Task: inverse folding
């Protein structure tokens, strides 16, 4: 199990997280289910995968993941929360040794790619 510094308990915000390539949407959907659970809804608030709407050769609309192997989770990151979000396809919050929230200004730029 990953051990982080004690002050991490007080860090809340959007964390960039590494996931298995091609599983970005699957992991995000599973985490959205976890948000509905009363135990976790006070710690995990939102999940976001930057995507772009595209049209395939058959004219069907699809969502294209823009940042491969990454999702963003708004949460209070504690050891318990880490254990809960460590589902199949999830790898680690970034940076792995001392995760820290993505600055709000940077997230605002990414939100223009929110299509969920």
Result:
């Amino acid at each position: 199990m990953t051990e982080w510094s004690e002050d991490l308990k007080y860090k809340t915000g959007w964390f960039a997280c590494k996931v298995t390539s091609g599983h970005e949407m699957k992991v995000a959907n599973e985490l959205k289910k976890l948000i509905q659970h009363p135990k976790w809804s006070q710690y995990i608030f939102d999940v976001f995968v930057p995507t772009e709407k595209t049209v395939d050769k058959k004219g069907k609309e699809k969502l294209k993941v823009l940042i491969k192997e990454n999702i963003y989770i708004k949460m209070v990151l504690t050891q318990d929360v880490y254990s809960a979000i460590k589902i199949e396809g999830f790898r680690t919050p970034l940076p792995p040794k001392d995760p820290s929230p993505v600055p709000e200004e940077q997230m605002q730029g990414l939100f223009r790619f929110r299509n969920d």
The CA atoms of residues 54 and 60 lie 8 Å apart. The chain has one domain: 6-113.
